[in-house]
Predict the 3D structure of the following.
Amino acid sequence: MRTAVGIIGGGPAGLLLARLLHRTGIDCVVLEARTREDVEQRQRAGMLEQGTVDALREAGAAERLDAEGLVHQGIELRFERERHHIDFPALTGGRTVTIYAQTEIVKDLVALQLAEGPPLLWEAQALAVEKPESASPVVRFLHEGREQTLICDWVIGCDGFHGISRGTFPAAGSHTYERDHPYSWLGILADVAPSCDELIYARGQSGFALHSMRSIHVSRLYLQVPGGTDADDWPDDRIWDELDARFAVDADWTLHRGPITAKSVTPMRSYVHEPMRHGRLVLAGDAAHIVPPTGAKGLNLAVSDVRVLARTFAELHRTGSERLLDDYSRTCLARVWQATRFSYDMTRMLHAQPDGDVFENRLQLARLRRIASSRHAAAELATNYTGLPLLT
Ligand code: APR
Ligand code: PHB
């Protein structure tokens, strides 16, 4: 097989890039290791910055998002049994966010690609990227029981944190920056109407809790748990009891319970690989960076990488100039590091320290108190949360 742009990975980054390139008339192929069912069922994020909504509209993939997405005007912070609303439009000159599950974005993009192209190969596992420094890099992949090759002009690694693309970069000239947090998130889906209209980020006495949602009928909640926690050690009642304790406020508010339909534990890490390009191999999304989900940046960062990349290929396609491609890594990393900073700071502010560091605990409360009492501090949070400008 031969194509202009070989895309490894059919998650949000790979699928959106394929859609944008296809609409620009650029030939591409997506190789996805898993099945369609696997990819469409993976429970992930759900909070979209305006830039992500814009990108999906630009891709002609936002019909259901526009019909079913929940536009939110802010979030609520809870600590010391107090509630504090962060009013996004008032603090950012009108910006809002939208709740629409990543699973639904993937379903929308998959349906469009299967209907209109480009080719999307399921259970096609990339084994290696060869000759990335050449003008014709090759992806070796396993599909339908045999090893095949995809000869490309460019290869884009959208294969996530556990993919193979990043490992193709030479050690010399590559740098990784990482920080593992000493706790994880236990996430649940519950068939019960959300107990709130907007997301609640709570710093309870015993730890962090987040109340999100997937629709007006389905709640999505998270609970800070020790690293290495087994979800099976958390029966439903224990989860609801702990959530109740962490959301507790001196106000007339009740956490509504319902059947838990999904349960999983996610580790918390920050990770950045520099650079994001080597020769004709380019990384986008989780293949290049991971953020702790506290700042809701993972999906939005993947989309912003893809928006920049699609623009660079459009210019290359139109003019033959690689000028924007030469700037891709620097442009994306500037935004990646700002999102990494924000996600790290939100995580450190809202999670109980497992070692019970009382000094850190007091610092956290001081940070929360500052945001609750200072328009300037609240605006800084709102500006980062709703999304920094695409091109810094
Ligand atoms: N060959 C082909 N496909 C692969 C390979 C491989 N060797 N390795 C991984 N993949 C596929 C995975 O099966 C997955 O579908 O690459 C895809 C990567 O998708 P994501 O991990 O979702 O990464 P990305 O598209 O960058 O989206 C980032 O997804 O994981 C969340 O929190 C993350 O919200 C963020 C978003
Ligand atoms: C989610 O809805 O899954 C979600 C929302 C906000 C976050 C993390 C996850 O910060």
